[in-house]
Amino acid sequence: MCGLFGVARLGLEPQPIGTSTADRCRNALHTLTHRGPDAWGEWQDKRAYVGHRRLSIIDTSSHGVQPMVHKRSGHVLAYNGEIYNFRELRAQLAFDYDFESTTDSEVLLHGFDKWGIRGLLGRIEGMFAFAIYDPVRGKLYLARDRVGIKPLYVGFGNSEITFASELKAIVEYSEPGSLTHDPSALYDFLTYGYVPTPKSLYKNVEKLSPAHYLEIDLEGSCRQDISYWSLDDSIGSRSTGSLATELRGQLRDSVREQMIADVPIGFFLSGGIDSSAVTAAAAHHGARQQTFSIGFDSVSHDETAFAEMVADRYQTCHHRYVLSEEEAGNIVEDVIRNYDEPFADSSAVPTYCVSKLAAENVKVALTGDGGDEVFGGYNWYRRFSRAESRKMRFPSFFQPLTRKLRIRASHTPAPLSARIAERLEYDHLLKGFDLYARLMGGLIAREKMDYRNYWEIPEDYDDYWQYRAFYRQDLPVLTRLQYLDFHTYLPDDILTKVDRAAMMVSLETRVPLLSTNLIEFGFGVSEADRYRDGRLKGLLMASQRDELPAAILNRRKKGFSIPQKDWGASLFSSGRTFGENTLHQIYGQFVPPKMRLPS
After folding, report:
1. In whole angstroms, how far apart are CA 21 and each of 1, 154, 158, 206, 413?
2. Average pLDDT, the chain
3. Which of 2, 25, 317, 353 is catalytic?
4. With bands split at pLDDT 50, 70 and 90, how would you rate the model's confidence at 400?
5. What are the start-end ranges of the H helices in 428-530?
6. How many CA atoms lie within 13 A of 175 on its CB side?
7. pLDDT at site 288
8. What is the C-alpha to C-alpha distance for residues 228 and 116, in angstroms, rounded to an integer?
9. Which of 267, 346, 382, 448 has CA atoms 20 to 30 A from the CA of 363?
10. Between residues 430 and 368, which one has the greater pLDDT?
11. pLDDT for the residue 410
């Protein structure tokens, strides 16, 4: 994994990148040292600056240093990620190009020269965010992988474009007062628990959407935002057959492909079906693996016994760490602040801790992320489906009462009144996007009126615009929710969480359950096949019947979450949701004065 930062000037006769600007660029690049502590490089001409921080994984020699410049065309590449099929592509390109390294970066550079941006993106399999600058034609290309595993922020000014792996680099580069906070992003955060793509905390900075690339004509000061891949054609496209056997084989292939590295690798192992299946698949490919898990000093949330069950079965070198309430309280603010904009997933804390544990032993870790979205594993799918089908609805004036009861019990063992209030909301009060937002832990529209008024959000503003963009009414209800999560919650929460937490300790994480083949396989089967025997992730479970202990396959799903109710006093305690607390504690200057937490 790496970090990149760059600036490109717009117009026919742009102001040159001078010494003072280059110094600012360099300072911005070095805010990403944690993403690439092994080496750094920069390239510039009168129009553009391209910088790169390197975490050396494949071909750790100096031949892999970036930015990388193509000898024939002069194209300049800065790239973050891994291309897993680079060896096959290299073999195709070797007829036309002489390679000086064994890196996947050089494959990208030659591939762009031969196939162009669309041809390249259609061929590569992996996780990536990259910038390619063409100094001859005055064009800049910015691209992001199909799922959004790797981040890319783009800043748009009157006279220049900035791009970076993390928002902090653009903030560091920008002149004081040139970035304006976006109140609608803060308002959205209260619903989604993250700032939804393409927005960022700032009005003039955007996240590039997954499966998109930007083609920017610097001389003409115009840009095109182009989608190069879509999940839609895969849905329900497969016929039934030996699906469990085929899935098991595809998972093994994906894990084998993503185990390629010139440095030590390991595996996150939570004890859930996803990470356990990845660990089991890896065991079929050779040497003894290193696995890592995090436990909690709260018995109700500690799952390390299940992780150790899988580790024992496959004789991994297993590492376990128990996170205490005191330690979580000490690091939570620093961890969440690292996301550079409001972020409400409290599991970022244990994700950081398991990444830190892994980074002490390996440089790369494979995870089980993506399994819930691709194979249908979230408990809220069933709850949403049941609630939506219920006929009886209570009047809306019950909602303020039920919210008070829920929040009052948010940091203590939930009393009967809170459990009743929650059940009333899910089953008889909320529906549609209100229900979905509540199931995801966000505030619904009517609960944000004070924020709306303070931030002057228009009355006709759509609180659920991101959900609405990816809500496919034509799909069966469970597949519909998977499709929605795949395009929203997965890239903006799950993958963002893991990327930033792991990069804090310079650890590369890979997600074999999100290979293109597995995504298209998972969504390609019918809903009945995916939920075989009426079970969440039924098909994935069936594929692992001979691979994992029955206790793993039959256990109730538990998310990778902290024991927040037990630890409430240590984690932004106030009786508000974790998201509200995050906003108040870290971004309190933007919060309505009457709602701010006491200092």
Report:
1. 26, 18, 16, 22, 55
2. 90
3. 2
4. low
5. 432-439, 449-455, 465-469, 477-487, 489, 496-503, 516-524, 527-530
6. 5
7. 82
8. 13
9. 346
10. 368
11. 47
Q: What is the pLDDT of residue 404?
A: 55
* Nearest to 66, CA basis, from 76, 74, 81, 57: 76
- 291-309: pLDDT as tens digits: 999 998 876 677 888 999 9
Q: Tell me whether residue 25 is one of the annotated catalytic residues.
A: no
Q: What phi, psi does 510 have (nearest 5°)?
A: -125, 155
Please write the tens of the pLDDT for every residue from 236-245. 777 667 999 9
**Strand locations in 244-395 (E):** 265-268, 290-296, 317-323, 364-366
Q: CB within 8 A of 462, min separation 6: which ones?
A: 468
Amino acid in the structure at residue 215: E
By the 8 A CB rule, do 154 and 209 touch? no
* 416 Cβ neighbours under 8 A, 6+ residues apart: none
What are the pLDDT digits (tens) for 192-229?
A: 999 999 999 999 999 999 999 999 999 988 999 999 99
Residues found in the chain: 599
**pLDDT number for residue 411:** 45
Q: What number of H helices and E strands is found in the chain?
A: 25, 17
CA distance 455 to 444: 16
Stretch 344-357: mean pLDDT: 96
**pLDDT given at position 253:** 97
Of the candidates 1, 121, 4, 131, the one whose C-alpha atom is nearest the C-alpha of residue 58 is 1
Query: Residues 262, 239: contact at Cβ < 8 Å?
Result: no
Strand order in 265-268's β-sheet?
A: 317-323, 290-296, 265-268, 364-366, 508-510
Distances (CA, A) of 71 to 50, 100, 106: 17, 11, 11
Domains of the chain and CATH, by start: 2-227 (3.60.20.10), 236-375+507-581 (3.40.50.620)
What does the CA dihedral 562, 565, 570, 576 come to, rounded to 10 degrees?
110
Question: Structure tokens of 159?
Answer: 């006279």
> Which residue type is seen at 571?
L
- pLDDT above 70 covers a percentage of the chain that reads 89
Q: What separation in angstroms does the CA of 220 have from each of 16, 117, 138, 215, 252?
A: 17, 19, 9, 12, 48
Strands (E), 165-251: 205-207, 212-217, 222-227
The answer to whether the CB of 575 falls within 8 A of the CB of 407 is yes
Which of the listed ranges 323-332, 393-402, 483-492 does the model predict with the highest average pLDDT? 483-492
Write a three-state SS string for 389-419: HCCCCCCHHHHHHHHHHHHHCCCCCCCHHHH
